[in-house]
Amino acid sequence: MLPIRDCVQQTPGYVPGEQPQTTDYIKLNTNENPYSPPDEIFNNLEEELKKVRLYPDPVSTKLRQAAGEVFGFSYENILAGNGSDDILNIALRTFVNPGETVAFLDPTYSLYEIIAKVHGANIKTIPTNENFELDSPLICPEAKLIFVASPNPPLGKHLNRQSLQETCEQATGIILIDEAYVDFSDENHWDFIKQYNNVIVSRTMSKSYSLAGMRVGFAISSVEIIEQMNKVRDSYNLDRIAQIFGANCFQFQDYFKDIWQKVRNTRNRLTDSLRKLDFFVFDSDANFVLASPQWMEASDLYTKLKERKVLVRYFKHPRISNYVRITVGTDAEIDRLLEVIEQLKNEA
Ligand SMILES: Cc1ncc(COP(=O)(O)O)c(C=O)c1O
User: Fold this and answer.
1) What is the pLDDT of residues 231-287, one digit of tens each?
2) Does residue 142 lie within any of the structural domains?
3) φ/ψ of residue 78, rounded to 5
4) Which of 35, 93, 286, 347 shows a CA-CA span of 20 to 30 A to 27?
5) How far is the CA of 245 from the centre of ligand 1 (A)?
6) Which of 252, 283, 313 finishes a domain?
7) Final residue of a domain: which of 252, 278, 307?
8) Ligand 1: which atom is nearest the Cα of residue 204?
């Protein structure tokens, strides 16, 4: 018998959305940005590539400084992660002993549960209301760490701000507010970091800065919290190319702001068009929408779209088993999606 920890043996492992190995799919399944970063960030990489035999900056100094300028914090308030998934894991290992409690909403980003289980933590899930929203503070006095995503997947809407604020006020543990999708909305929770000493905000460059393949994320919090988390991260957790891409992308704010607006416009058009095609669709603050076809099982729709080379995401979770989650693509990709859906509806 191999000495595998029980909690690992009993965990199914995280199931990411498919990354097809061919390029003939319209890929609307993993909330990537449909637009590339600006061409300029691919220039002048040669010098850096020649340094691959050397370790990268262990503390990602330039990247954190660039992030600090954009976020309005000192770089000492910022920890860089290998994607924000890395930040979630670092937080877990900094604040929670195996056997202690981690809390999060249901449904939410499914990785929270997997990493907490693998860590050997107790899990407390707090159901969202029938509209998948938070209408009262998330109370869990025994939780050492609460993960809350706002906007919260798979719905993509911001959580009620008042409830979130009361959660921060009442919590005895750490609240990590996961803002992976925040740049596609008008709100953020920077003020909570300043107001409460137990709040961490996590950010990613995967979605709004078109860098999913580079793995760049951040924790922003008090210097005291960041110092403790810094001890827990892998010693060289971001490679040198990721650090450069990340820092460079932050220099192109106008370029990315245009993209965020484009994604929002397409999201609104997608929502309206799906409603006209007899879907129930939630309003979204993110770069995806959760939609339920009223004329076909969502699982069948997922399969039939895939047969026609359009990938969306389907979750077996009982509360959302009649929904598909659709990432906002380019206008042309969304036109094609809508065209295929219309054909399927006519055939149904
Ligand atoms: C809520 C949420 N947080 C974090 C992530 C992970 O982001 P990253 O690519 O930075 O690891 C995702 C990815 O889908 C997400 O949905």
Assistant:
1) 999 999 999 999 999 999 999 999 999 999 999 999 999 999 999 999 999 999 999
2) yes
3) -125, 135
4) 347
5) 18
6) 252
7) 252
8) 10
